[in-house]
Amino acid sequence: MSFVALLIVSRSGAPFPKGFRDTVRTIFRRLFRVYAHLYSNHFDQICALGIEGKRQEPSWGVVS
Which of 15, 51, 52, 53 is deepest in the core (most CB within 10 A)? Predict the structure, then answer.
């Protein structure tokens, strides 16, 4: 079974797989690290492209 298949619930009302919350937390943590790396190490290139105003905050949003 693939990694993505573990996250998809096949039926409405079906319980989420064990470890679902930890898996989602790991994915968001990794995405944040990629975002932080791009922002901190490649900001000069982003400014040169003129897109720095478009990426001041993540587009996915964070649900608390």
Answer: 52
